[in-house]
Amino acid sequence: MTPLRRGRPDDGGDRRARIVASATRLFADEGFDAVSLRQVARDAGVDPALVHHYFSGKDELFAASVELPADPDDVLAGMASLAAQDRGTALLRAIARLWEGPQRHALAAFVRGSLGSRARTAAVREVFRARVMPRVLEGLEGPREELELRATLAATQVMGFILLRYVVQLEPLASLPREQAVALVAPTLQHYLTGELTDPDPGRGS
């Protein structure tokens, strides 16, 4: 293991890059929740104080490790204060505004670059699991297992919307006015967030 180098950095770019590279691998392999800043520092061969020197916390390091073009906290600001039945529309509207704004090219490059990389794909999964869906589901009632299932189902709808409308640009969805596209897709997303998840035909397949 690389010996720890204490003190303020004299090769800042190199040490910061090593920290980000270690974080990227660890987040992809172990998930956001399982990784600590001290673990990242140990893997990168630096003093833990250096991680805090470059990054305010794990969220900022995570964003840097996956090269997020936008901060989920900013995109989803105020989401938790909305009534549960309004969150599907609000989430899709926020995503549509983001993808149709100045960052659209960076976002498309991020998604395309993630599809061919195991580490980046895992990172995208962690973005949704650890930073997007908890904010959308905050305050919703239900067992943990049910909320995790809802988060997964909602993520499939959100990612499908992003991929088909903005990355693949499948017509006619790609050319629909924003509010029309949101109005058509949001009810399904809202069902995943708050609707019944029981099998409509329990006897099927028996």
TrEMBL record:
Keyword terms, alphabetized: DNA-binding
HTH tetR-type domain segment(s): 13-73
Pfam families, per database record: TetR_C_16, TetR_N
Location of the DNA-binding region in this protein: 36-55
InterPro entries xrefs: Homeodomain-like_sf, HTH-type_TetR-like_transc_reg, HTH_TetR, Tet_transcr_reg_TetR-rel_C_sf, TetR_C_16
Highest taxon above the source species: Bacteria
UniProt-listed SUPFAM superfamilies: Homeodomain-like, Tetracyclin repressor-like, C-terminal domain
Name of the protein this chain belongs to: TetR family transcriptional regulator
Species of the source: Sinomonas flava
